[in-house]
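Budget justification aside, the reviewers requested a transparent look at the raw inputs and outputs of the sequence design task funded under Objective 1. We therefore reproduce one unedited record. The lines immediately below are the structure tokens for a 91-residue chain.
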């Protein structure tokens, strides 16, 4: 029997909303790095993981990337994904 497809939504503290799906994967958390580059430019990296521990492990990788790539600074955020049967149905 096929796994049920669902949509996952991340709502970031700044109001940004990211919807993932349809998926049958067991993702639980969304992470985002906003890297501040020279000249007021930014670059965004993101992903989803199957546990909070896995998402938190990306923070160490972000620090390494900042040193290697010469980022002026960066913000790292993790939020829990909200599950819905249809896009936008996150009540």
């Amino acid at each position: 029997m096929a796994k049920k497809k669902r949509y996952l939504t991340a709502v970031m503290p700044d109001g940004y909303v990211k919807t993932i799906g349809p998926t049958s994967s067991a993702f639980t958390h969304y992470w985002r790095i906003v890297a501040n580059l020279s000249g007021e430019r930014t670059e965004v990296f993101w992903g989803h993981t199957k546990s909070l521990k896995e998402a938190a492990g990306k923070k160490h990788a972000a620090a390494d990337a900042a040193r290697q790539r010469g980022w002026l600074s960066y913000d790292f955020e993790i939020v829990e994904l909200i599950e819905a049967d249809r896009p936008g149905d996150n009540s």
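The chain has a mean pLDDT of 90. The chain has one domain: 6-84. Computational costs for records of this kind are itemized in the attached budget.
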